[in-house]
Description:
The protein is α/β, with parallel strands linked by helices. It is built from 14 helices and 14 strands.
Amino acid sequence: xxxxxxxxxxxxxxxxxSVKQLKPMDWPPRDKATAKKLCEVYMxxxxxxxxxxxxxxxxxxxxxxxxxxxxxxxxxxxTLQCALAACGVGPGxxxxxxxxxxxxTSTAVNQIGAKTVFVDIDPLTLCLDPQKFKEAITPKxxxxxxxxxxxxxxxxxVIISIAKKRGIFVIEDCAHAQGGKWKGRxxxxxxxxxxxSFQQSKTLSCGEGGICLTNDEKLAGLxxxxxxxxxxxxxxxxxxxxxxxxxLLCNNYxxxxxxxxxxxxxxxxxxxxxxxxNRNALRLEKQLAGIPGLRVQARGRLAGPQSYYGWAVTFTDxxxxxxxxxxxxxxxxxxxxxxxxxxxxxYKHMLYNLxxxxxxxxxxxxxxxxxxxxxxxxxxxxxxxxxxxAATIDLIARIFAKIAGNADALRAVK
Length: 414
């Protein structure tokens, strides 16, 4: 991209890159075929209890990701809780999670009485640092939850290898990674269990929902009991059946036929959507390559294609030292683009108000990379932006480049 340092920032009175605020692709998607099917399910009166739509969706989604089994649930937090419970995690156990993630990754651990151990992240992918994971293992470690943050996959080769040697369960948090692949196979099918979320903002959404994927028949059976008040798969409620294993506390986490209908409609276009996101992400990265002050979140090693929940860019201190992130965001908005900030460490989140030592501990006492990212100037474009046309993508790239080229001018803005 050409040098645009001489272009005056809009926040300082210059001409904005886009006179009107840019808008991302409309999300979530809606279509008449899905609306018609929802009406049919409504009129059928069969709205839950492992219905035909749920069964079809589970098979289709598991196949899409290369997994043998799927268990559909009400949201992506209880999927994590059930995954942990199915692996036998409970009071007295420790579960290792990356410090930089949404807080549900940790609260799921605490909900079943285990302790969270926060470890640091890789500075480029923003995912769990395998070496820090290895260093944090103790005799109490029962599981690890690598998070594929914003769709960039964690280093599964190394993480799974370390975990297998120590008898540690691997639960992939794929809330940001619907449809993403690693080494040609779907994320969520590599660990013992993969947990997905279908919350409103996700790349596959039904408002709220979640699914666990696994290739282990025994774990699949336990997951089903956990979400269906203890009943085994394909057992009607109220019918005589064997109960769950002793000590397995089961609940009602059943999802509905309506959720399954919406997801089945979107799943048909997921591969095409992800391909578009990858093309546009690469288009952005190509235009911003080599511009001082900008560092794009690295794609996961051996990823392809990557599922983008967000596209993250850090404004680095070699250029932006002394400039608050709020000033950068205001300048970008003035140019026509609004962005998110990134997560902070879970243990510093205002909603994570659990007592240290009993509910969690921080490996080595600190997670400097995660804390540095949180206090840095990292902008995140939600995934619908990557569904934009080429002209909009080019304007987005131009806005980032213009801000990067005018850091000194931005520093002078009061």
